[in-house]
């Protein structure tokens, strides 16, 4: 009986060993699956973080572009205003140096036309008036072709109107 019981035990042990081996294999397989899922989740989280950073960068880029465009527009307006003021000052200097009534031909801008109309409607000798009594001849658009110079010491190339 000893022998027979030994065989049964061996058989039982082998059976238990096979079952345990299958369980270890199943656990190993599940462990690999879990590790693969963890790796996939990790990759997904990294991709989400990267996507979030890209979106934040795009939002920041759009904000910066908007600010830059606003600044550029402001600078363009400031440049236009300064150019108008410079032209006005040059015109005033020209009138002061020559003592000549200047008739400005219509420009492209309606603002220039409106300011010219204001200048022409002012009465002579008003305080702040740019007009001076005297010659009312028109000045050609190209000052280099003046046939009779207005002032002998006057350099028309220095005036930008």
Topology:
Layout: H1 2-98, H2 110-121
Structural overview:
The chain is mostly helical and 161 residues long. The chain has one domain (2-158). 68% of the residues lie in helices and 0% in strands. It has helices at 2-98, 110-121. It starts with a helix and ends in a 40-residue tail after the last helix. Mean pLDDT is 76; it is low at 121-133.
| Main β-sheet description | none
Which structural class do you get from the secondary structure elements? mainly alpha
Helix content: 55-70%
Low-confidence stretches: 121-133
β-strand percent reads: under 5%
Overall shape: rod-shaped
Number of helices: 2
Overall pLDDT level: 76
Span of the ends, CA to CA: 129 Å
Radius of gyration: 46 Å
Keywords:
single chain; 161 residues; mainly alpha; 2 helices; 0% strand
Quick overview:
The chain is mainly alpha-helical. It has one domain (2-158). It has helices spanning 2-98, 110-121.
